[in-house]
Amino acid sequence: MDRERIGLQARICQLGQHKTARRLNGFAWMLKRLRRWLLVGWLWNLPQIRLTIGWIVLLCAGLLFYLLSLWLSAGERLIKNRWLAALRQQTPVTLADLLIAFSRRDLLLSARVAAFYRARLCGRWFCILAVPVLLTGVSLQLVYEQGVSRLVFIGGATCLTLIWLAALFFCSAAREPLRTAASLITDQDSFAKRKSSLARLDKCCFQLMRFRLNWLFLPGGVSEQARAIYGSIRQ
Length: 235
Description:
mainly alpha, 10 helices, globular
């Protein structure tokens, strides 16, 4: 199935569902911004932090809120996966139905899905960025200890910039199969197949990346549905 047909199918799935998609995206956006504001607030007040009972209580409360917001984001992601899957299967379902059916096992499953996604993502980014980080460190040490001419410095800086751009491009490409594999997890059975699904989706990482980059063709949440449709075909 070509990309245009998948995009059209994704648009058809999302017809009449834009309000629900905005609510889910708005909730996820709010949690992400709250976590960022919390981190910025702690970093801003870092020089004032003291090892007193008040500060320790605030730190524990902030850490608890951060972890709970991560868990809420994971739960929202699992609910969204089920909602998108229901739309693909043309099964009428509402967010209220999904929330009522959400159980304690689903809380554990959502945490496992989030841990799977973040651990694999950090591992991939570490492997890809290790080379440019090492080259940059060695180059800075040589410049600091021995010094180089202006021409050599410009040439080296240009090469390092190109290496970093290539590394960031591959980081973005390596993220897409993970996001697609995680979006296809809706229950324990699909979670058990996560590794085999990811292995097949890795071969299509650049195709998946095209769905995200073509934001004019697939705006908003439609691109997520399109990647999920493509991933379900390639599974």
